Amino acid sequence: MNKMEIDRSTQKSVFLNDSIDFYKHILDCIPAIVYINTFTEQGNPYSLVNIWSNRFAQQFIGYSQEEMVELGFSFFEDVLHPDDLEIITSSKVWEGSINNSSEIIYTLLHRLRSKGKNDYTWVYGHGLQTEAYNGGFPKTLLSILVEITDQMHTENQLVVALKEINRLKNEMRCKSLTKREKEVLSYIASGLTDLQISEKLYISFATAKTHRNRIIKKLKVKNTACLAALAMECGLC
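^ that's the sequence the OP posted. Answer follows.
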């Protein structure tokens, strides 16, 4: 390599370093929570780790980047509301909506709390899948969130937000059902008895009753009325 080539290589290296510093400065100045999470194990929601966050996010949450990395999944357990965490920890959330393609965008609405605090703050934004495993499960996600607590000042807005989170949770639960269980659930939602369902599906009364009990257990509901409401919300009737 001659002197001219060395000079060009040096200039390119300096330019790249300057560019990285420039973009990092811009991201740190954005008044929004910007972070990158990655699943370190394919298909395991509990392997989620925060690998980068901007300065605003660190100040908002109260954790340093080193602490977030060291805590691993425990970090999300500390800062996310339990109801919102339940959505993230289900692998069913990712099935059917994710493939090997990158640049898949999500809408995010959940509650965060700062280190050592009890009160949660509503945040809203978008997530972008930037990398996926060969099996289709996501690997790396970029998210941008802004605080909307001040905008959630009316009871109606709060109810709408909670309903949306509950809808996502119910959809997640419905994904755990087998094809046959979904079929039985649709009949239950239509008001059919176990005997009528057994006749419709050409199965025994005992089998129909077993399906009903298993569905109630899977969906974590108390009774048939709750099953019917959940089925309607999931589009099964």
